[in-house]
Amino acid sequence: MGLAKYFENTKGLGVLATSDADGNVDIAIYSRPYIIDEKTIAFSMLGKLSYSNIQSNPKAAYMFVERGEGYSGKRLHLTRTGEEKDPKRIKEIKKLHITAREPDEKVRHLVYFTVDKIRPLVGDNT
Q: What is the pTM of this model?
């Protein structure tokens, strides 16, 4: 199953891990990513710590834990590739997201990532 179908059909909780240039790590609850294509995702980010971290260190990881019994989900290894700051474009992308709320008035950044690797939530030894 591709990423678009997976995130469209699977309920759960997402966590984004980032670190700054000095290696100071932060983790934050994040909604599902916007799927641009099978190798590109995006997150709508406010100008907080996660956003600040990826400005100095483009590497991040996103963990999605599926709702239900056991430990199922995905770990995505990511590299920041770009950013969209145009509020109209961000609003267009957010409309594609099934669970998107109306955008508020806060300044948001739509940050694009290449999906470098997809791993299961538990195991796979790589």
A: 0.87
The domains of the chain are located at 3-120
CA atoms of 123 and 96, how far apart (whole Å): 32
CATH superfamily of 3-120: Electron Transport, Fmn-binding Protein; Chain A (2.30.110.10)
Residue 98 pLDDT greater than 90, yes or no? no
Taking the C-alpha atoms of residue 120 and residue 7, their distance in angstroms, rounded to an integer, is: 14
Residue type, 36: I
Average pLDDT, the chain: 89
What is the C-alpha separation between 54 and 5, in angstroms, rounded? Answer: 27
Distance, in Å, from the CA atom of 42 to the CA atom of 45, rounded to the nearest integer, reads: 9
Is residue 104 within 8 A of residue 44, CB to CB? The reply is no
Pairing mode of beta strands 40-46, 59-66:
unpaired
